[in-house]
Amino acid sequence: MFDRRLLSNFDWGFLLLIVFICILGLTILYSAVTAGYAGTGLPPLFKKQIVWLAVGFAIMMGCLVIDFKEFANLHFLIYAACVGLLVATWLVGHTGGGSQRWLVLGPVRIQTSELMKISLIISLASVYSESISPEGLGFAHLIKPALLCIIPFGLIVIQPDLGTGLLLLLIAGCLTLFVKVEKKVLFTLGVAGLCLVPLVWFFGLKEYQKDRILTFLNPERDPLGTGYHIIQSKIAIGSGMLTGKGFLHGTQNALNFLPEQHTDFILSVLAEEWGLAGCVVLLALYLLLLFWGLNVSYNCRNMFGSLLAMGVTIMIFWQIFINVGMVMGLMPVVGVPLPLISYGGSSVATNMVGFGILLNIRIRKFNTA
After folding, report:
1. Strand pairing partners for 108?
2. Helix, strand or coil, per DSSP, at residue 119
């Protein structure tokens, strides 16, 4: 039963921040999807995004009903369910763009790797909250977390979706460093990682993945192929200058020179039409979002809740960092959406679950039982 007294701790400011970012995202998305649209009324993708945001807000509010500490008790069930969805995607998933990443459930198409982010955070927070120590975690303590990471990473990489797989490892790695590991463990893992780099390059990566990395280092090596995305994105960002060309007046977007402008490269649309000023506003809102998540983690008196809030905040940070770096040509193109801005139902739902968890922890931050 939901305790109505908890409403007194509800953070309306954070909710308004999320609403504002969503409105900004819809505005940018409208410009991105109307480029070349010859139909009447609102573009279909725009209407779908509105529906997904409405569903996302309902999911976020639904996350408040259950005490966040119950997630620790249910973490293995949640993890097993998400792994099962990944296996189903591998067996009977929908293929698009050369990748088998989506599971079709009636009229809904779900990118199951997105759901795995939240599941892994819950599981790691549960495991670490029981084994954390002032001296740091040893190798024995990291066996279970390593297994929790390896299974979904392998299932996601074979889709193939290396970007999301690496994002899972980044989230897990940062959360592990946050709880502290022994120095000898950190040194050993660092050396092992460096030794694995050449093996991964020659035997682990596919040719198109190697091309993405080489293109990141030199986009002009294939300007009409693998380097096209980055080059057009840089042109769009540079042409926006300080204040941009104006809403719906971005030429790179309107003339369809900018690929994937409604998903991975939607920040380029913002930069072209609203310039540096618009990008600074969005990044400032994201910064508030991240600081709020860190504040939730810091003030929670329950170890599991503190780690859970930190994990969600880390997830949001890396999505922002990778996407912004990607569209500016500072990172390889890996297909990570911009939270609440890029089009995509699975991404919206996953991030809204994360925000719901943060709100849940906030209203129960003094409950240590």
Report:
1. 105
2. helix
The pLDDT, as a whole number, for residue 281 is: 94
Transcribe 322-347 into DSSP letters.
Answer: HHHHHHTTSS-----PPTTTS--HHH
Per-residue model confidence as pLDDT tens digits over 106-139 = 777 888 889 999 999 999 999 999 888 777 788 8
Say if strands 99-105 and 108-111 run parallel, antiparallel, or are unpaired: antiparallel
Lookup: tokens for 267: 């920040």
- Identity of the residue numbered 6: L
Q: Which residue has the tokens 């369910």?
A: 81
The distance in angstroms from the start CA to the end CA of the chain is: 17
Reading across the β-sheet that carries 94-96, which strands appear in turn?
94-96, 99-105, 108-111
Retrieve residue 258's tokens.
């900018």
- Are 160 and 99 spatial neighbours (Cβ–Cβ below 8 Å)? yes
Nearest Cα neighbor of 282 from 312, 249, 327 is: 327
pLDDT exceeds cutoff 60 at 2: no
pLDDT of residue 108: 79
- For the stretch 277-305, pLDDT in tens is 999 999 999 999 999 999 999 998 889 99
Total Cβ atoms within 10 A of residue 33 = 23
